[in-house]
Amino acid sequence: MAHFNVTGTYGAIGAAVNFAVLMVLYLVNMNLLAEWYVGILALLVLVVFLFAGTVAARKANGNVLSFGQAWVASMTVAFVAQVSSAALTLLLYQVIAPELPGVLEEITLEKTRAMMEGFGMGGDLLDMQMKEIKAAMKEAYTSKGLAKNSAVGMLMWALISLIVAAVTRKNANTEFA
User: Fold this and answer.
1) pTM value?
2) Which of 67, 76, 128, 165 is least crowded, fewest Cβ atoms below 10 Å from its Cβ?
3) Contact, 164 vs 57, CB < 8 A?
4) What is the CA 36 to chain-centroid distance, rounded?
Protein backbone atom coordinates (compact mmCIF):
# COMPACT_ATOMS: atom_id res chain seq x y z
CA MET A 1 0.00 0.00 0.00
CA ALA A 2 2.98 2.33 0.42
CA HIS A 3 3.23 2.50 -3.34
CA PHE A 4 0.06 4.64 -3.54
CA ASN A 5 2.05 7.59 -2.17
CA VAL A 6 4.66 7.02 -4.85
CA THR A 7 2.18 6.66 -7.70
CA GLY A 8 0.13 9.65 -6.57
CA THR A 9 3.29 11.75 -6.56
CA TYR A 10 4.16 10.66 -10.10
CA GLY A 11 0.63 11.52 -11.24
CA ALA A 12 0.82 14.99 -9.71
CA ILE A 13 4.26 15.62 -11.20
CA GLY A 14 3.08 14.44 -14.63
CA ALA A 15 0.13 16.84 -14.49
CA ALA A 16 2.42 19.67 -13.36
CA VAL A 17 4.86 19.01 -16.21
CA ASN A 18 2.02 19.04 -18.74
CA PHE A 19 0.65 22.25 -17.24
CA ALA A 20 4.11 23.85 -17.37
CA VAL A 21 4.37 22.95 -21.07
CA LEU A 22 0.87 24.35 -21.61
CA MET A 23 1.83 27.61 -19.88
CA VAL A 24 5.04 27.96 -21.91
CA LEU A 25 3.10 27.45 -25.15
CA TYR A 26 0.47 29.94 -23.95
CA LEU A 27 3.14 32.55 -23.22
CA VAL A 28 5.02 31.95 -26.49
CA ASN A 29 1.96 31.84 -28.76
CA MET A 30 -1.48 30.79 -27.57
CA ASN A 31 -2.37 29.64 -31.10
CA LEU A 32 0.02 26.70 -30.59
CA LEU A 33 -2.42 25.26 -28.04
CA ALA A 34 -4.81 24.37 -30.87
CA GLU A 35 -2.21 22.30 -32.74
CA TRP A 36 -2.71 18.52 -32.85
CA TYR A 37 0.83 17.74 -31.72
CA VAL A 38 0.30 19.47 -28.35
CA GLY A 39 -2.21 16.78 -27.41
CA ILE A 40 0.18 14.05 -28.56
CA LEU A 41 2.97 15.62 -26.48
CA ALA A 42 0.72 15.68 -23.40
CA LEU A 43 -0.15 12.00 -23.92
CA LEU A 44 3.51 11.05 -24.28
CA VAL A 45 4.47 12.92 -21.12
CA LEU A 46 1.81 11.09 -19.12
CA VAL A 47 2.75 7.71 -20.59
CA VAL A 48 6.33 8.30 -19.44
CA PHE A 49 5.06 9.12 -15.95
CA LEU A 50 2.80 6.04 -15.98
CA PHE A 51 5.82 3.84 -16.64
CA ALA A 52 8.05 5.69 -14.17
CA GLY A 53 5.40 5.68 -11.44
CA THR A 54 4.63 1.99 -11.88
CA VAL A 55 8.32 1.06 -11.81
CA ALA A 56 8.77 3.21 -8.68
CA ALA A 57 5.79 1.43 -7.09
CA ARG A 58 7.39 -1.93 -7.91
CA LYS A 59 10.65 -0.82 -6.26
CA ALA A 60 8.73 0.42 -3.22
CA ASN A 61 7.08 -3.01 -3.03
CA GLY A 62 10.33 -4.98 -2.82
CA ASN A 63 10.80 -5.08 -6.60
CA VAL A 64 7.74 -7.34 -6.93
CA LEU A 65 4.44 -6.30 -8.48
CA SER A 66 1.81 -8.62 -9.91
CA PHE A 67 -0.04 -7.67 -13.06
CA GLY A 68 -3.06 -6.53 -11.04
CA GLN A 69 -0.94 -4.49 -8.64
CA ALA A 70 0.93 -2.93 -11.57
CA TRP A 71 -2.36 -2.03 -13.25
CA VAL A 72 -3.70 -0.42 -10.07
CA ALA A 73 -0.42 1.48 -9.63
CA SER A 74 -0.57 2.72 -13.22
CA MET A 75 -4.23 3.67 -12.87
CA THR A 76 -3.42 5.59 -9.69
CA VAL A 77 -0.85 7.64 -11.60
CA ALA A 78 -3.39 8.20 -14.38
CA PHE A 79 -6.21 9.13 -12.00
CA VAL A 80 -4.16 11.64 -10.04
CA ALA A 81 -2.77 13.10 -13.27
CA GLN A 82 -6.25 13.33 -14.83
CA VAL A 83 -7.84 15.02 -11.81
CA SER A 84 -4.87 17.36 -11.32
CA SER A 85 -4.78 18.24 -15.02
CA ALA A 86 -8.51 19.01 -15.06
CA ALA A 87 -8.15 21.26 -12.01
CA LEU A 88 -5.15 23.08 -13.48
CA THR A 89 -6.86 23.47 -16.84
CA LEU A 90 -9.95 24.86 -15.14
CA LEU A 91 -7.69 27.31 -13.29
CA LEU A 92 -6.20 28.35 -16.63
CA TYR A 93 -9.58 28.78 -18.34
CA GLN A 94 -11.34 30.52 -15.45
CA VAL A 95 -8.65 32.56 -13.67
CA ILE A 96 -5.38 32.91 -15.59
CA ALA A 97 -6.69 33.34 -19.14
CA PRO A 98 -10.49 33.50 -19.35
CA GLU A 99 -10.22 34.61 -23.00
CA LEU A 100 -8.37 31.42 -23.97
CA PRO A 101 -11.39 29.11 -24.46
CA GLY A 102 -12.91 31.53 -26.96
CA VAL A 103 -9.65 31.87 -28.88
CA LEU A 104 -9.08 28.10 -28.95
CA GLU A 105 -12.66 27.51 -30.03
CA GLU A 106 -12.32 29.98 -32.92
CA ILE A 107 -8.99 28.53 -34.11
CA THR A 108 -10.24 24.95 -33.86
CA LEU A 109 -13.44 25.75 -35.73
CA GLU A 110 -11.47 27.41 -38.53
CA LYS A 111 -9.17 24.39 -38.84
CA THR A 112 -12.10 21.98 -38.73
CA ARG A 113 -13.98 23.89 -41.42
CA ALA A 114 -10.90 23.95 -43.66
CA MET A 115 -10.38 20.21 -43.16
CA MET A 116 -14.02 19.39 -43.95
CA GLU A 117 -13.96 21.58 -47.03
CA GLY A 118 -10.76 19.81 -48.07
CA PHE A 119 -12.69 16.54 -47.91
CA GLY A 120 -15.29 18.03 -50.24
CA MET A 121 -18.01 18.77 -47.70
CA GLY A 122 -19.92 21.97 -48.28
CA GLY A 123 -23.23 23.76 -48.14
CA ASP A 124 -25.91 22.99 -45.59
CA LEU A 125 -24.26 19.77 -44.41
CA LEU A 126 -21.07 21.63 -43.52
CA ASP A 127 -22.99 24.40 -41.75
CA MET A 128 -24.99 21.85 -39.75
CA GLN A 129 -21.84 19.95 -38.73
CA MET A 130 -20.09 23.17 -37.72
CA LYS A 131 -23.04 24.17 -35.49
CA GLU A 132 -22.89 20.78 -33.74
CA ILE A 133 -19.13 21.01 -33.28
CA LYS A 134 -19.40 24.56 -31.93
CA ALA A 135 -22.04 23.51 -29.38
CA ALA A 136 -19.88 20.59 -28.24
CA MET A 137 -16.82 22.82 -27.95
CA LYS A 138 -18.64 25.41 -25.82
CA GLU A 139 -19.29 22.72 -23.21
CA ALA A 140 -15.76 21.30 -23.38
CA TYR A 141 -14.27 24.40 -21.74
CA THR A 142 -16.62 24.37 -18.74
CA SER A 143 -16.12 22.52 -15.46
CA LYS A 144 -18.84 20.07 -16.51
CA GLY A 145 -17.14 19.49 -19.85
CA LEU A 146 -13.73 19.01 -18.24
CA ALA A 147 -15.21 16.50 -15.79
CA LYS A 148 -16.92 14.61 -18.62
CA ASN A 149 -13.75 14.56 -20.74
CA SER A 150 -11.72 13.42 -17.73
CA ALA A 151 -14.10 10.52 -17.11
CA VAL A 152 -13.91 9.45 -20.75
CA GLY A 153 -10.15 9.94 -20.65
CA MET A 154 -9.90 7.46 -17.78
CA LEU A 155 -11.21 4.75 -20.11
CA MET A 156 -8.31 5.44 -22.46
CA TRP A 157 -5.86 5.42 -19.52
CA ALA A 158 -7.31 2.10 -18.33
CA LEU A 159 -6.34 0.54 -21.65
CA ILE A 160 -2.90 2.15 -21.67
CA SER A 161 -2.43 1.01 -18.07
CA LEU A 162 -2.98 -2.59 -19.18
CA ILE A 163 0.04 -2.25 -21.46
CA VAL A 164 2.07 -0.52 -18.75
CA ALA A 165 1.17 -3.25 -16.26
CA ALA A 166 2.12 -6.01 -18.69
CA VAL A 167 5.52 -4.42 -19.27
CA THR A 168 6.35 -3.40 -15.68
CA ARG A 169 5.00 -6.31 -13.65
CA LYS A 170 7.46 -8.58 -11.90
CA ASN A 171 6.43 -11.64 -9.93
CA ALA A 172 8.36 -13.00 -6.99
CA ASN A 173 10.94 -15.63 -7.84
CA THR A 174 9.88 -19.08 -6.74
CA GLU A 175 11.72 -22.36 -6.99
CA PHE A 176 9.49 -23.32 -9.94
CA ALA A 177 10.05 -20.13 -11.94
Assistant:
1) 0.86
2) 128
3) no
4) 13
